[in-house]
Amino acid sequence: MSFESPELTDGFVDDSMEHLNNIEQSLLDIEAAGKDADEDMINAVFRAAHSIKGGAGMLGFDTIKELAHKLENVLHMIRSGELEPVKDIIGVLLDGFDRLKELVLNINESEGMPIQDQVDKLVAVVTSGLPEADQGLATAQATVDVGPERVMEVDAVSLDQARRGGNNIFLLEYDLIHDFQAKDKYPWQVLKGIEDAGRIVDSKLDFAAVGDLESDFSNRIPLYVLYATILEAEHLGGLVGLDEKRITPIEDARESGRVAVAEQRVFGSFELVVENQIGRVALPAKVGRSDTADFQGVLRAGLEQCAGLVLDSSGLEEADVFFYQLLCAALRDFTAQDKPFGLVGDVAESLRNEAQDMGFVADVWRGLGARETFF
Q1: 275-284 residue pLDDT tens
Q2: Contacts of 217 (CB under 8 A, 6+ apart)
Q3: Cα distances (Å, whole numbers) of residue 334 to 265, 300, 302, 361
Q4: Cα–Cα distance, 59 to 307 (Å, whole number)
Q5: Mind listing the pLDDT tens digit for each residue in 298-354?
Q6: Where are the beta strands (DSSP E) in the chain?
Q7: Closest to 313 (Cα-Cα) out of 249, 234, 371, 228
Q8: Residue 313 phi, psi dihedral angles, 5° rounding
């Protein structure tokens, strides 16, 4: 849903096109230089994607914001040295920016224009640049909730990038009417000013807060901004122009009760379901070498997010040595944190025999009604 003001929208389109008109040549120059690509040129292309993402988020053009965000992630990894600007990667970026330009030039129809092909390719590039244990981040979503309504989703890669360098992440709560319109200011005038001391990770207007005809009219349109900075909370208010009640440290959000951050719950074929702080994962029929990163990811998520974890093995028919190795590692880590961890469900006879042959049967397998032994 876009914030439809002709003046604001026209300004966003003009500003975006200034960024986009020279992108193709810059990317081709970066590709030609390879590892020796000019750092300033890479930063300029990154800032173009970042600026378009920010403007689209403030105006409610979510399709443009999503594509620009995915482009930004790849460019961040190039400028940090995690990815080399080889031909295939530059080709994905060129395709993404071409589509972004089409969206901007057709701004009023952009919300209905498909971008999934470009997004999938950009996510695949990000995945290829991550360590195997972190590859689940590329498709993970962290949801930031304010009150009972979800207002923002941001990919876990962006949060991970933003946390680096000792940054703190805050949720800033602006009001489009009272903080900007009443003061005769444009949102980007204020937000560009705060980027000198940090980085805007994401932003989103919450039109749902206006209410409906059956409820009290709120006369406010919240603009939520995820902001990463090395500054501490006590030094942030003057910079961002907000009182402390509208600045929430994300890392303290669970304790404050004002904001909840839900971490990744789906890792490939594995889904972490949490009820009453206990996690449960239904294992698929086959867990092989290609599933190792996803399985490790869901186990780590269970350890970090839950008071205990149950693996339902009733559907499991085939596993390999990496599966058993991760079970042992998880058991050790859950035990170290005094958290229960175990298997439930009948296990195929072939797997039970296989586990015995590998020496994985142990009487230390306890917790949550699980069997006394591994299988």
Answers
A1: 777 889 999 9
A2: 210, 211
A3: 18, 10, 9, 18
A4: 40
A5: 998 888 888 889 998 888 888 888 888 888 888 888 888 888 888 887 777 777 777
A6: 141-146, 149-155, 168-175, 199-205, 222-229, 247-249, 259-262, 266-267, 270-271, 273-275, 278-282, 286-287, 308-312, 318-319, 341-344
A7: 371
A8: -95, 10
